[in-house]
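Note to self: keep these together.
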Amino acid sequence: MSKGATVSVNWDIVCSVVTSIAAVAALGISVSQIWASNKQQLLDRRLRLWIKAHGLMELCAHSRFRLEKKEDGPELTNDYLFLLMTNNSLLCDIGPVIEHISDQDWKKRFLLKLDELKEMAFEAELVFRGSSAKALGAFFTDYASLLMSIYQYQIMLNCLKEDCRSFLHSLEEAATTVGEKEQRAVLHEAEDKLLNSYDELSFHVAARIKGQCGSSWLS
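Structure:
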């Protein structure tokens, strides 16, 4: 090129390069925003589940003596246990179901709440990591199972009381007729299983779950 020659600039190419750079930058910003949004949603889900689990754990702690106590005969305070285990904002709306066992509207409300607990168990295993996910999921599942066991035992108790009234049977005779002992064993097993899940969360997993709730990483 001779001295003083004019350099020709292809502005179409320049514009194309600038446009490409801007598109890449915009894509990078978009990806970063999506990543941050997903991370925040994950943390929100973890916090929501842990807050609910913590509320249920408090009920377990306050009711531990009653859960550990095992009667040799019919558990005639079964309805009281149900009220204890539903005495918070998450479950209080199903507390009255124990007094309306034969009411189908109350039954539907109760079953929907159990489904909600089971959904939380499933979600916990999706949004938490490792053994923490399994422990939290098991706790929600075992809590729902206990509520169902209390509910079923109350149905049996109502039949027992009706048997005593209708046939003038003693409590022991009526208990044999309606299979009370077998149903009580199922109830006791559900109580013990929930306490084991509660202990696992309280003593071994809670700190790890709290750590994941405060995690700054999407993992």
